């Protein structure tokens, strides 16, 4: 399949496919396209975002079955082969012979790369080593000075995961402030986000940049859909006094207040309709646990708001409407809202 055809066919399943590199498209065409089409026949949509407990169990099952099939004696050898140079050739041969990519992603409607990264995170013994000691922090700074941001190399030297060393260095590389955000810090964050959004919009849709430039207030924040793709390490650098996770959390809180202020989402008839939509959509998911709910997708049911806002609204709804809610399971709470609260809301509407 040629590159343009692959990109075009993948677009049905991955809306942001235009932003994916050619090399990644080629890999996805081989590893994912047929799987996605098969899931479509079964009426199952391709998923992104947080992995559910059910998906984690399926990954664990897939890994264990592959180990049993091949005789490889540990998940660490399978997923972190470079740590075992003496077994490297044998493991690669077994992975090829027994179709590792296909087996590891069985039953999970997500891109193979995300499943693979999730498996590595789940089975990496270096992920669970607790807090960094003072000596480890000093080593991390020294290794970063020697090797730059080659986190794979640094993770091997420190026996910590790639993600762990990258995030820890992000926290310690400058004087980080853990107190309340000052007005100056918040302004820096707003400017940094607006700057990267402007660049992103210019790439995606040049005509939209003019409206962004002319905005003296905050209508441009309605482009909240971009928040998950923002380059937080770059924004961290621009803010200077906070690490990337703090910047992301602060930005999400800004979105929550700004997107709800003045939009009248939860007042009058709009508020009733939003609650009705939320209850109906939650009931339709048939989720047994809150972790199984795609909150990003659910936010579309009630308006252009972040997932945190939808989760907060659901919390207030169950606390105010469901008696003894702490003793009920997630599905029992949803059933109660659907059977008891929904008719009342629809009558009021």
From TrEMBL:
Molecular-function GO terms, alphabetical: chromatin binding
HTH myb-type domain: residues covered: 124-161
Any one biological process term the GO annotation gives: termination of RNA polymerase I transcription
Stored PROSITE patterns: HTH_MYB (PS51294), MYB_LIKE (PS50090)
Pfam family, one: Myb_DNA-bind_6
Limits of the Myb-like domain: 124-172, 173-255
SUPFAM superfamilies the record matches: Homeodomain-like (SSF46689)
InterPro entries, sorted: Homeodomain-like_sf, Myb_dom, SANT/Myb, TTF1-like
GO cellular component: nucleolus
Domain of life: Eukaryota
Protein name as annotated: TTF1 factor
């Amino acid at each position: 399949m040629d590159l343009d055809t692959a990109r075009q066919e993948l677009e049905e399943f991955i809306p942001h496919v235009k932003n994916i590199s050619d090399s990644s498209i080629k890999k996805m065409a081989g590893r994912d396209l047929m799987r996605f089409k098969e899931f479509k026949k079964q009426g199952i949509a391709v998923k992104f975002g947080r992995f559910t407990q059910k998906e984690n169990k399926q990954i664990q099952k897939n890994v264990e079955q592959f180990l049993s099939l091949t005789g490889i004696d540990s998940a660490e050898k399978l997923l972190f082969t470079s740590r075992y140079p003496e077994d490297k050739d044998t493991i690669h041969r077994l992975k090829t012979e027994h179709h590792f990519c296909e087996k590891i992603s069985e039953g999970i409607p997500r891109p193979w790369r995300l499943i693979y990264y999730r498996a590595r995170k789940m089975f990496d013994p270096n992920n669970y080593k607790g807090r960094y000691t003072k000596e480890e922090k000093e080593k991390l700074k020294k290794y970063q000075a020697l090797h730059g941001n080659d986190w794979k190399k640094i993770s091997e030297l420190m026996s910590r995961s790639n993600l762990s060393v990258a995030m820890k260095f992000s926290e310690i590389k400058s004087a980080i402030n853990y107190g309340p955000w000052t007005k100056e810090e918040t302004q820096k964050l707003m400017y940094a986000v607006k700057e990267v959004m402007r660049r992103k919009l210019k790439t995606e849709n040049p005509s939209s940049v003019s409206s962004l430039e002319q905005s003296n207030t905050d209508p441009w924040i309605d482009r909240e859909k971009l928040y998950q793709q923002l380059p937080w390490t770059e924004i961290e650098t621009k803010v200077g006094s906070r690490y990337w996770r703090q910047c992301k959390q602060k930005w999400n809180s800004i979105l929550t207040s700004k997107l709800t202020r003045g939009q009248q989402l939860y007042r009058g008839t709009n508020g009733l309709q939003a609650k009705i939509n939320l209850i109906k959509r939650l009931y339709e998911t048939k989720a047994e646990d809150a972790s199984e709910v795609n909150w990003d997708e659910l936010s579309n049911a009630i308006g252009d708001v972040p997932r945190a806002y939808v989760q907060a609204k659901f919390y207030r709804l169950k606390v105010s409407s469901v008696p003894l809610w702490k003793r009920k399971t997630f599905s029992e709470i949803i059933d109660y809202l659907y059977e008891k609260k929904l008719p009342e809301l629809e009558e009021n509407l």
